[in-house]
Amino acid sequence: MKTAFFNTKSYDRQSFNTANKQHQHEIIFFECHLSHETVSLAAGYSAVCIFINDYLDTEMLEKLAQGGTKLIALRSAGFNHVDLAAASHLGLAIVRVPAYSPYAVAEHAVALILSLNRKVHRAYNRVREGNFSIEGLLGFDLHGATVGVIGTGRIGAIFAQIMRGFGCKLIGYDAYQNSACLEMGMTYVQISELFAQSDIISLHCPLTPDSHHLVNAEAIAQMKTGTMLINTSRGGLIDTQAAIDGLKSGAIGYLGIDVYEQEADLFFEDLSNEVIQDDTFQRLLTFPNVIVTGHQAFFTSHALANIAETTLANITEFEQSGSCLNEVKIEQAIASK
Ligand code: NAD
């Protein structure tokens, strides 16, 4: 299928070119985002392929449909960046990659925990400067710590399994109890209990209108002093200003985030020669007990290969049958809200 890829980096082009040897779609890679300014580039392409920070509103979807696009292939699991109602109205199909490597994201959450706890980020700099003092690098044993998992789906369950391996006590919050989590000894609790009992809280639920600012000032007030908060899910789950206040008061003892509310203006680009205008983000970076990574939790070679293979298989399936198992239906989106 003639497909235009937007917002591509070298690693996308490499993984898709490799996977396309089998699928043989006619593809073109654009580095630019799909936006109001660039949507005309998609004219004549039956399919467009986009990433999480390409936002498709009604006007752009109309232009795509007018240009002959039939299919929008998301290189992501999440679909909150596309107006599904408008796409459905215009007869545009949306397909996605429901799971590519839950291990990648779960393992990155654990990397943030270990780094924050044992202050690896600070130790790395100290030793390179010849400073071998261990003052200020005191950590705690993960063994015996209570870990609260919010969202116990694919990623949350794998994260829980890893933390179980450290000898942590597991508590979870989710409308659906995952049998794998129950088997590994997780106790499901109300969210207020999870906030109150956890030494470490890790977020693994999707961003929906219900979960927006799930961690706000009220939630932080219920936490133990010095709680570690980890977010590898979506930035909007945390009220960033409330987290900053929590860090200043000591309520939050450690913050590890791979996602940020306003990340669309920052992440995935090299801004090292620019003055960052987002003062809230810059304030976060001043804390010694905060680690921010730029939405890289998914970024393993396994995940990239899976994303490329599933995306191209989705396009092939749609081309051959006019439908796809990984199609996002409007009813599904409403159900997840
Ligand atoms: P999943 O659908 O398997 O699991 C999500 C779980 O969250 C489900 O069990 C669901 O019942 C639960 N849930 C929904 N709303 C909730 C709420 N308000 N409170 C508590 N639980 C709730 O999804 P997954 O594959 O485990 O992915 C989880 C999230 O990870 C995704 O939504 C995405 O935002 C994020 N993610 C991040 C990256 C990254 O690179 N940082 C990559 C992939 C996915």
Automatic annotation (TrEMBL):
Its EC number is 1.1.1.28. The keyword Transport does not apply. It is an enzyme of class 1 (oxidoreductase). Pfam families: 2-Hacid_dh, 2-Hacid_dh_C. One of its GO terms (molecular function) is D-lactate dehydrogenase (NAD+) activity. PROSITE patterns: D_2_HYDROXYACID_DH_1, D_2_HYDROXYACID_DH_2, D_2_HYDROXYACID_DH_3. Residues 110-297 form the D-isomer specific 2-hydroxyacid dehydrogenase NAD-binding domain. Keywords: NAD, Oxidoreductase. The keyword Zinc does not apply. SUPFAM superfamilies: Formate/glycerate dehydrogenase catalytic domain-like, NAD(P)-binding Rossmann-fold domains. Residues 9-329 form the D-isomer specific 2-hydroxyacid dehydrogenase catalytic domain. Belongs to the D-isomer specific 2-hydroxyacid dehydrogenase family. PANTHER family: 2-HYDROXYACID DEHYDROGENASE HOMOLOG 1-RELATED. This is 2-hydroxyacid dehydrogenase.
